[in-house]
TrEMBL record:
UniProt keyword terms in alphabetical order: Hydrolase
CDD domains linked to this entry: PaaI_thioesterase (cd03443)
Protein name as catalogued: Thioesterase domain-containing protein
Domain called Thioesterase: residue spans: 39-116
The keyword RNA-binding appears for this protein: no
Domain of life: Bacteria
Keyword Protein biosynthesis annotated: no
Pfam families to which the protein is assigned, alphabetical: 4HBT
Organism: Corynebacterium vitaeruminis DSM 20294
Length: 126
């Protein structure tokens, strides 16, 4: 079973674009514009949603190598810094690629390379 990332409705509304997809790394970008909260800063929920999407895609790609699917079990997002403009990048890398559970870290940065958010996501392989 092979997998090709398909953007969901929320991903499209948020302006997410896939840059790279492999078992070792999934990279996507998202504009800050259109994803701000009422204070004009990038919405923390948008960061969490982006992290979940990218981490889940990475888990699904791994699961496809086993002929299986991946479903979410746990997600945690830590916000480090705010942003009010530009393009952000989310990079998912594996912490553990198991036969039953996968865990990924998703590092979300701004155009200057500053860490905005760290997302840790765990998926079950089913």
């Amino acid at each position: 079973m092979t997998w090709k990332i398909v953007l969901g409705e929320l991903d499209k509304k948020m302006g997410v674009q896939i840059v790279k997809e492999s078992v070792e790394k999934v990279v996507a970008t998202m504009p800050v514009e259109g994803n701000r909260q009422s204070f004009g800063l990038l919405h923390g929920g948008a960061l969490a949603a982006l992290g979940e999407a990218v981490g889940s895609w990475a888990a699904v790609i791994h699961a496809s190598t086993l002929g299986k699917k991946a479903v979410g079990v746990d997600i945690n997002a830590t916000h480090h810094q705010s942003s009010s403009e530009g393009l952000i990048t989310a990079t998912a890398t594996p912490i553990r690629l198991g036969k039953r559970i996968t865990s990924h870290e998703v590092l979300i940065t701004n155009e200057q390379g500053d860490r905005l958010c760290t997302v840790r996501i765990t998926n079950a392989i089913v």
